[in-house]
Structure formats: C-alpha cells, structure tokens
Amino acid sequence: MKLSARNILPGTILSVTKGTTTAHVVLDLAPGPIVTASITNQVVDDLGLVAGRPAKAIIKASDVMIGVE
Q1: Do residues 6 and 56 lie in contact, with contact meaning Cβ atoms separated by under 8 Å?
Q2: Could you tell me which of 23, 20, 19, 31 has the C-alpha nearest to residue 48?
C-alpha cells in the first residue's frame, strides 16, 4: 500500500469500542503516545481490528492548532 500521508506511526491496538455506528480504536504507539481514531463499525469489521493486533495510525492534516489560556 502506498499513501501520500507522511505521518505513518506503527503501534498496537489496545482496545476497540463499538458504538451504534462508530467505533473508537485506541492505538499504543509505544514508546510514545496513545492515539484514538473514530471510524465506522463497518471498517472495524472489514479490517479485522481487535486488541493486540499491530496497526498503523496514518495522520494527514492540513492544520495543527494549539491553544493556551
């Protein structure tokens, strides 16, 4: 698979929590942060996403915002 995104971060799925239509997939990027992706339940099923499976967080964003008070 080739992608235009440059931020491809390997990790391990910690958990998959399905809602009515959307699932939250928590990915451990050890030894770094933990990220959560909100994706459809259908994609979770299609990709066979389960806790303990290796996966990649692919991040493509045109803006990064930071705020302070």
Answers
A1: no
A2: 23
CA distances to 4, 30, 31 from 43, rounded to whole Å, are 20, 24, 27
Nearest of 45, 44, 57 to residue 11 by alpha carbon: 57
Q: Residues 57, 6: contact at Cβ < 8 Å?
A: no
8 Å CB contact between 51 and 11: no
Domain residues of the chain, as ranges? 19-58
- Scanning the structure block, which residue is given the tokens 């990790």? 11
pLDDT averaged over every residue in the chain: 91
What pTM was computed for the model?
0.84
Question: SS3 string of 36-53?
Answer: EEEEEHHHHHHHCCCCCC
